[in-house]
Design a protein that fits this description.
alpha/beta, single chain, 28% strand
C-alpha cells in the first residue's frame, strides 16, 4: 500500500508560513535581506533575528506595506545591535545526518528511507507498506538537508498520530480507563499531558522510544483521567497497572538523549 504527501518551501529555513523577501539598507551602509511573514492572528508588528533564520518581520492583517516599512526603518538601531550580538554568539552546531532507517520499537517496525534529488520547491513523501518491508521515499530538493529533516519530522508526527491513537485505545481498554480525545504534538521534552476534560496529549516522539516508555507514558496520562494530581492515590493507581513504573520513570529522565539526532533537532 502506498501513501503520498507533499511539503513545500518558499525559503530554505522557514517552512510553515508563506513569506516574501525584501532588502533593508542600514545607516552604516550594510544591506540586509529580511523576510516578511503575514499573520492573521498577530495583533502587533514584531521582528526577530537569529543567525540561522535571519531577520523575520511579522505583519498583522490590516497593516499596510507603507506603515510596515516605516516601522522597520524606525528599528535600525535595534537591528544593528542584534547583528552585532549575533557575531559574538557561538556557532550553531551542524545539522545531524539524514537517517537511512527510522525505527518504531513499539510497532516492531523499521522504515527504510531513500532520497531522490530532482528540481523543484516540493519534497514529496511516498510511503510503501509491505508485509516484508516498509519504505519511505523523499523526492525533490533533498540536497537541502534542513528541509529534509523538517519533512522527516512532520511525516513521523503524522505517522505517529495514527499509531499512537491505536495504542492508546488498546491500553485504555486493557486498563479500564476512558478518555475524551487525544492529540499528538511535537514538544521538546514533555512526553504527555491530560486535561481536566479527559483530553490526552502525546508527543509524537514516543513512537521512537522503547515500548515500556511509551506504555508508561500512556498509563500515566490515563491515570490522570481519574486523579488530576501526583498524589499517593495517583501513584498507587499507576503502580496497579504498571508495578515497575518507578524504574521506567527514572529511565525516562534522559529520554531525549536516547532519541535520534534528526528527531531532536530544532529548526
Amino acid at each position: 500500500m502506498k501513501y503520498g504527501r507533499y511539503f513545500t518551501t518558499e525559503q530554505p529555513l522557514m517552512y510553515t508560513a508563506a513569506m516574501k523577501s525584501a532588502t533593508l539598507t542600514l545607516p552604516d551602509g550594510r544591506t540586509l535581506a529580511y523576510h516578511i511573514r503575514r499573520s492573521g492572528r498577530a495583533k502587533y508588528m514584531r521582528m526577530q533575528y537569529s543567525p540561522d533564520k535571519g531577520l523575520i518581520v511579522t505583519q498583522p492583517a490590516g497593516v499596510c506595506e507603507h506603515v510596515l516599512a516605516d516601522w522597520i526603518n524606525s528599528k535600525h538601531d535595534w537591528i544593528s545591535k542584534a547583528l552585532e550580538s549575533a557575531e559574538h554568539q557561538p556557532v550553531k552546531a551542524s545539522l545531524p545526518p539524514l537517517p537511512d532507517t527510522i525505527t518504531f520499537p513499539a510497532l516492531n517496525e523499521t522504515v527504510h528511507v531513500s532520497y531522490y534529488q530532482h528540481p523543484g520547491r516540493q519534497i514529496s513523501t511516498d510511503y510503501y507498506d509491505h508485509e516484508a518491508a516498509h519504505s519511505l521515499i523523499l523526492g525533490g530538493p533533498v540536497d537541502n538537508q534542513a528541509f529534509c529533516i523538517h519533512v522527516l519530522q512532520k511525516w513521523t508526527q503524522s505517522y505517529a498520530k495514527y499509531h499512537l491513537g491505536i495504542l492508546l485505545q488498546q491500553i485504555a481498554q486493557e486498563t479500564g480507563f476512558t478518555y475524551n480525545n487525544y492529540t499528538v504534538k511535537a514538544q521538546k521534552t514533555r512526553w504527555g499531558s491530560c486535561s481536566s476534560k479527559g483530553n490526552i496529549n502525546l508527543n509524537y516522539k514516543l513512537l521512537l522510544m522503547p515500548p515500556e516508555w511509551l506504555r508508561y507514558t500512556m498509563i500515566h496520562e490515563l491515570c490522570h483521567t481519574q486523579e488530576m494530581n501526583h498524589s499517593k492515590r495517583f501513584w498507587a493507581l499507576v503502580e496497579k497497572h504498571m508495578p515497575d513504573y518507578q524504574r521506567v520513570h527514572q529511565e525516562m529522565k534522559n529520554a531525549a538523549a536516547a532519541l535520534p539526532d534528526w528527531a531532536n533537532h530544532r529548526l
